[in-house]
Specification:
Number of helices: 15
Number of strands: 13
CATH architecture of the largest domain: 3-Layer(aba) Sandwich
CATH class of the largest domain: Alpha Beta
Order of helices and strands: EEHEEEEHEHHHHHHEHEEHEHEEHHHH
Structural class: alpha/beta
Radius of gyration: 30 Å
Length: 457
């Protein structure tokens, strides 16, 4: 992409979260960032690229102005900055009064208040970031687990773009090959045979298919899942919930029906963000409060992406449990036989024809680690952790569109449709990949043609 237009105005914003803190930052970017930034404070030395300078923040101007804070000012000269424009960052103490004073002065001097995300938008428009890296900035800010932060940092480093780049390069080479055959036939450039086109398309697909499959894990790392723990009263649901949470979050007693309302807690299993929901025991409620709790349990069961059915290894299945097991068939669900430490060979008792029962003991911890592994396997569909995952629907749609375009080109080639029509499908696939890796210009295609073929020798 080309650099951002020179006509862009200078914007300013407080770049640290609202409230009080040790440090607060006011950031400016644009053609007047340096001149405005230098007027906001009293500098103890001239601003130089990538050098921090001490400065004083005054409560006004003129001889009556008094110092109210000390700040560190850093200047990044275009194009070697986050936005590829001049950028000035003023790091003062995190007092809302001081930060708002600096921001108001910047606006009075001609800066405009930045829109949400506008600094990163300018970085994208200037070519400093592609769309996947820009999305990763937001994802890193919103990360709630270490794995989410690592995934976002990987994307910010261009992991997804790098993973898609080889397939895109192969596609560009195929397009250049067909374009050369059409446009430069008089220069003895041969028309590409259909067998060669088919081979190249077939070689393109595996990398994109693997990338599309990465969405299964990338989506849940990004968004997380809800897991509902359901079962009869006193089967040990709350005890298992506490084991998975690794603290006494839910109240546990020997009295059936202790849990009357939903209890939720967020955890991370192998980097997968999970919201665990401990539910009221499913039975015919004896009083209004328990009936309401049971109704909410059924709602949680219906809404959850994953279900953990807890059975008491010491008790035969009752009618409610038979209905529950039938209801979760075909859904991502696990069955645990809790209190396995008290029952002989609990794993031998089938829970349901299509569901494997895992023996566990919330009391002793037996089987809990195996249960965690099964939950992760169920959540991810067995998809492995790897760099460059698709993490949102926009990215997934781009790969799906590229694969569909290649399939169309493959069919057109098999039907011996003219290369001009095949190119329409190939360009559609290229444009989809561009949304991940950055735009391919006509000059890119032409440069490849002329570097690959001896045209006009």
């Amino acid at each position: 992409m080309s650099s951002s237009p020179a006509a862009l105005d200078t914007i300013a914003a407080i770049s640290t979260p609202p409230g009080r803190g040790g440090i607060g930052i006011v950031r400016l970017t644009g053609p007047e960032a340096l001149s405005i930034g230098a007027e906001l404070v009293v500098l103890r030395g001239p601003l130089e690229h990538a050098r921090a300078r001490l400065a004083e923040v005054l409560d006004g101007s003129g001889s009556q102005a008094a110092r109210i804070d000390e700040a560190v000012v850093t200047f990044f000269a275009a194009p070697n900055s986050y936005t590829a424009e001049d950028v000035v960052e003023i790091a003062a103490h995190g007092s809302p009064i001081v930060l708002n004073l600096l921001l108001r002065r910047a606006l009075d001097l001609g800066a405009r208040l930045a829109h949400p995300g506008e600094f990163t938008q300018r970085a994208f428009l200037s070519g400093r970031l592609d769309l996947t890296q820009a999305e990763a900035v937001r994802d890193l800010i919103e990360a709630q687990t270490l794995t989410q932060a690592r995934q976002a940092a990987s994307q910010m480093g261009g992991a997804l773009s790098r993973r898609a780049a080889p397939a895109k390069q192969d596609l560009v080479e195929l397009i250049a090959l067909l374009e050369a055959g059409i446009d430069f036939a008089e220069d003895d450039v041969e028309v590409t045979p259909g067998e060669e086109i088919a081979r190249r398309i077939e070689e393109l697909k595996p990398a994109l298919v693997a990338l599309e499959a990465s969405f299964a894990r990338g989506r849940i790392i990004h968004d997380g899942l809800t897991l509902a723990i359901v079962g009869r009263p006193n089967a040990g649901k709350s005890s298992l919930f506490n084991r998975l949470v690794e603290r006494d979050r839910a109240i546990v007693t020997a009295t059936p029906g202790t849990t009357r309302d939903l209890v939720t807690e967020r955890i991370s299993l192998d980097g997968i963000p999970l919201e665990l929901v401990d539910t009221a025991g499913l039975r015919e409620g004896l009083e209004e409060a328990e009936q309401i709790g049971i109704a909410r349990s059924r709602e949680a069961l219906a809404d959850a992406a994953l279900v953990l059915v807890v059975l008491d290894a010491m008790q035969p299945l009752n009618e409610e449990e038979h209905r529950l097991l039938a209801a979760v068939e075909g859904r991502p669900a696990l069955v645990v036989l809790n209190k396995s430490d008290l029952a002989p060979a609990p794993a031998a008792r089938p829970a349901c024809a299509n569901l494997i029962a895992l023996p566990t003991s919330a009391l002793t911890g037996e089987g809990i680690e195996a249960l965690r592994e099964k939950i992760v396997e169920l959540a991810t569909g067995g998809a492995a952790a790897e760099p460059g995952l698709l993490t949102n629907m926009r990215q997934h749609d781009a790969i799906v569109t590229a694969l569909a375009a290649l399939a169309d080109a493959e069919r057109a080639n098999a039907a011996r449709i003219p290369h001009e029509m095949i190119l329409l499908d190939l360009y559609r696939g290229l444009w989809a990949l561009d949304s991940l890796t950055g735009q391919t210009t006509p000059d890119d295609i032409l440069n490849l043609i002329f570097s690959t073929f001896c045209i006009g020798k």
